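note to self: dont lose this again. the chain is below, predicted strucutre after it. 291 aa total, dont forget to put it in the shared folder this time
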Amino acid sequence: MNVAFIGMGTMGAAMALNLLKAGHAVAVHNRTRAREEPLAAAGARRAASPAEAARGAEVVCTCVSDTPDVEAVILGDSGVIHGAAPGTTVVDLSTIRPAAAREIAAALARRGIAFLDAPVSGGSEGARLGTLSIMVGGAPEAVARAMPVLQAMGKTITHIGPVGSGQMTKAINQVILCGTYLAVAEGVVLGLKAGLDMEKVIAAVSGGAAGSWGLTHRSGNMIQNRYPLGFRVRLHRKDLGIALEAARELGAFAPLAALVEQIENALIGQGLGDEDVSAMARWIRRSSGLE
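---
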């Protein structure tokens, strides 16, 4: 398929590369143009704007940081909407407010362009390996058209419901994730304070009811107190803000998410917003006298 991909960040560049590996013809654009170069070296066509990237594309993917960025690359003066032809399907892989996804979908629909909100989970590892979980909101026929593209980037692709439901599912994912990371951090610090061999402890509990992706993939960061980037603290804090806004609107009680929001605010205030989100263990370590 002819695919456009806009946003060459940690996640987007890896996903675009997987599209190339799957045999799709890919046009790429990024605000910082130098980030397009590795994709061009792998066979992608560089485009000067989102609109130019979208011209001739059957599916346009966007993966940028926040709601205003998505609105700009899709609906802005040089946005996708000005290059995509009727019948094109736009797939937004970012994490944004569900209401914004619905507004973007309505604007595109007036031009005959379909829209899917399709946020992802699985971190930079999943993006690189093509094993992401993709949560999709939109019309079934649009999902079917985009499926070859989604399958090149993800392993678990779930059509949740209409536009906006993918973003709401991602909000739920981030709430669950934050609780898991905080619990792993507390368990790791408890074990370190007790003087246990934490590699043995993690091996023991991973096979039982405490097992989780966070325990398997991020407990090592917390034990070693080193946090190489998988998913930035500041981006997870943004995602939690979306989830907590939804919780307030729906009257849902989310005390754990609210606590983690404050922990992440503190980390960002200390200049640690670009560390991996597992760095919330720093707060537990310091509060426990390990730092």
